[in-house]
Amino acid sequence: LSDKLELTLKKLAGQATINEVNIGIAMRDIKRALLSADVNYKVAKKLVEDIREKSLGESVIKSVSPAQMIVKIVNDELTEIMGGQNQPLNLPPKKIPAIVMVAGLQGSGKTTFCAKLAKRLKKNGKNPILVAADVYRPAAVEQLKTLGEQIDVPVFSIEEQDAMKAALGGLEAAKAGAKDVVIVDTAGRLQIDEAMMAEAEALKNRLSPDELLFVVDSMMGQEAVNTAKAFNDRLDFDGVVLTKLDGDARGGAALSIRQVVEKPIKFMSVGEKVDDLDVFYPDRMAQRILGMGDIVSFVEKAQEALDLEKTMAMQSKLMKNEFDLDDFFDQLQQLKKMGSIQGLIEMVPGLNKMVPKQDLENINFKPIEAIISSMTKQERKHPEIINGSRRKRIALGSGTRVQEVNMLLKQFAEMKKMMRSVNRLAKSGRKITTEN
Ligand code: GDP
Ligand code: MG
């Protein structure tokens, strides 16, 4: 998948604006990417159309390619669709106890989530109680009790198989024990059925939970959307918890669910342990769905930090192979703003496979700056003239050792080589484009 988008990038490298042709190619691949991340077909189609419209005429900042720019636009759009910001749990501060109820299919991760949420609330100074309203399977009650012990949160349960009685009993226990949040775990079935829905609905009507959360397994893919819709049609829930995101699921379900039921995703569960819970960040999920987080942050950083004119000048120097240590010094200043060189390499798809890591990994900027500062103008222009005695002088002047000077010169040579690779990539990309 990622490889496909990389190919798109290659195809588009060197084009200066987003136009009908290049966006057509990019959008086709992006649609494919969305579909294979399990985004619902209709949702993906609409999304791509919206984005196509938005992107046309969008100007491309000089240091990135139109394709990279499109990825960024898509990413921003996905983020926006999923709510932009994280939507927090909405517990009214004055209502004590506040009530959280969960619903969802069996095995979706409800019970685990209840415990995780209790732990999280406790950490934030709350005093929660867990209520076992999944009364049909003794094992389910035991599971909640075990989790409760683990996190030192009380669990209310009853022997009888009466979910309503359990829930109301839990509410009373909360009041008696001065608990400020009641978390009600409910029963699920393997499939949506009337009995389960009716029970959940009755609980909702009676408890009036402040937050009714729908818990769904992200590994369910497309089916997650149908389930979410069925639960929402009946229960009109307040938010979604997406579980098992530690698995292979790309998270397309997050996007589809949000589009179809128009409810915020509030939490994501990323493992079986009680700590494996995170609030849901739309921007991170967008990157996960696209599988292009690296490009997105590359474009962002480029937008933030790069002096565009300088970069253009640098590029033309690189093309002509006139890049010298003065330019290197300038480039370092910019790279410092963007993170390490290694970081930069890792951010550019394709490049990370082409450039050997070892030599570039441990660059410390300070001595490099000192060393270059100790060189003469002539030496910076023509590093090849720096012989043994010059190296000694430079080391002495910069307070470094000759080995460090050697190292720097070697790194500089590596960097030139790397830049040549980038150029080759750009050139080959351009060739593919004109042939198409
Ligand atoms: P419930 O039937 O909806 O209450 O689901 P459970 O909370 O009992 O979870 C079902 C299974 O999924 C259990 O084995 C959990 O340990 C596991 N599980 C729950 N959440 C996650 C998660 O985020 N990641 C992984 N890998 N497993 C999870
Ligand atoms: Mg359960």
TrEMBL record:
List, alphabetically, the SUPFAM superfamilies matched.
P-loop containing nucleoside triphosphate hydrolases, Signal peptide-binding domain
Q: Which UniProt keywords apply?
A: Cytoplasm, GTP-binding, Hydrolase, Nucleotide-binding, Ribonucleoprotein, RNA-binding, Signal recognition particle
The record's annotation in Pfam families points to:
SRP54, SRP54_N, SRP_SPB
Q: Which GO terms describe its cellular component?
A: signal recognition particle
Q: What reaction does this catalyse?
A: GTP + H2O = GDP + phosphate + H(+)
Residues the record lists as binding GTP: 104-111, 185-189, 243-246
Q: Which residues form a coiled coil?
A: none
Domains as described in the record = Composed of three domains: the N-terminal N domain, which is responsible for interactions with the ribosome, the central G domain, which binds GTP, and the C-terminal M domain, which binds the RNA and the signal sequence of the RNC.
Q: Which HAMAP family match?
A: SRP54 (MF_00306)
Q: Where is the SRP54-type proteins GTP-binding domain?
A: 264-277
Q: Does the keyword RNA-binding apply?
A: yes
MF terms in GO: 7S RNA binding; GTP binding; GTPase activity
What's its job? Involved in targeting and insertion of nascent membrane proteins into the cytoplasmic membrane. Binds to the hydrophobic signal sequence of the ribosome-nascent chain (RNC) as it emerges from the ribosomes. The SRP-RNC complex is then targeted to the cytoplasmic membrane where it interacts with the SRP receptor FtsY.
Query: Where's it mainly located?
Result: cytoplasm
GO BP terms, alphabetized:
SRP-dependent cotranslational protein targeting to membrane
Localization per Swiss-Prot or TrEMBL:
Cytoplasm
Q: What is this protein called?
A: Signal recognition particle protein
Q: EC annotation?
A: 3.6.5.4
Q: Which gene encodes it?
A: ffh
State how it assembles: Part of the signal recognition particle protein translocation system, which is composed of SRP and FtsY.
UniProt lists the family membership as follows:
Belongs to the GTP-binding SRP family. SRP54 subfamily.
Looking at the record's lineage, which domain of life comes first?
A: Bacteria
